Amino acid sequence: MKKDLRIVFMGTPEFAVGVLNALVEAGKNIVGVITAPDRPSGRGRKLTASAVKEYAVSHNIPVLQPTNLKNMDFLNELRALDANLHIVVAFRMLPKVVWEMPEFGTFNLHASLLPQYRGAAPINWAIINKEQKTGVTTFFIDEKIDTGAIILKDEIAISKKETVGTLHDTLMEMGSKLVVKTVDAISSGEVETVEQPKGLSGEADTLKDAPKLTPENTYIDWNASVETIDAFVRGLNPYPGAWSFLIQKDEKQKVKIFKVSEILSSEEIFSEINISEEKEVGTLFIVGKRLFVNLKDDMLEILEIQLPGKRKMMTKDLLNGYSFEDSSKMIVNPHSH
Hints:
Layout: E1 7-11, H1 14-25, E2 30-34, E3 39-41, E4 46-48, H2 51-58, E5 63-64, H3 72-80, E6 85-89, H4 96-99, E7 106-110, H5 122-128, E8 133-140, E9 150-157, H6 164-187, H7 226-234, E10 242-248, E11 251-262, H8 268-273, E12 284-287, E13 290-294, E14 299-306, E15 313-314, H9 315-318, E16 329-330
Parallel strand pairs: 1-2, 1-6, 2-5, 6-7
Antiparallel strand pairs: 3-4, 7-8, 8-9, 10-11, 10-16, 11-14, 12-13, 13-14, 14-15
């Protein structure tokens, strides 16, 4: 027998909006939305609503914005919505009192093929780690992060030049369809779940995590290979951006790099910059309107860069009006200067 579902949706960023929109377009009964409180943003520090709140308001869906998910007033408001299913997409960790509340449970959409890449930044890490495939998974929430019983999965190949921006959009579309499919399965009582490894089996040893992105784990390792740096840069483009310190005019500047390319040894340019004296890793070379970095065994071209106080630019455009000194170089170890 088909169950009449009353759904509360929980999410905050753009990724969650695509999913919420798919549910609304599929005619699902969304009785309320829970999202983050409005935050100050921009130069004027004006209070700005989350992407999910803007969508919900424009579709006349009631919105709750709790600062504390265990607050009694919030819990009473949530109960009053009388939902029997909660759906979570890119929100925060829920207390048990919230995820246990609805009759048919609380399920989450995660942008990886669980149990791989549990954590805050699965799309980024799949590209950074040069995975050949990824996907989306729906699962019932339990006490830990991203460890609950798997409901459905859908997978996709990661293309050679994929960025986190392009993959995010693809997975948002795939995830939207998977969430609707999951709701249909719950509604018709046809849910079959698969338990995730809990750390006791051999499989748990091979699991990769997707930790939150920080300044420490988004710094470019100039000792790495061209392929590794390229994957790292793509996995952080456009957000938050791979970065490095640049020594320029005896000053340490923070730069972000959004696109790089390998220099093939067959390129004529290679002989021009393959200078006889040994240059250290990180040294920059300019040839015409092109910018190169010396690596251990190779050369890398920087195609798109953002200097402090400037917008993101193609290097060829930047070099029309900006010059690097001969001694300019990227700092290999951010803690050494």
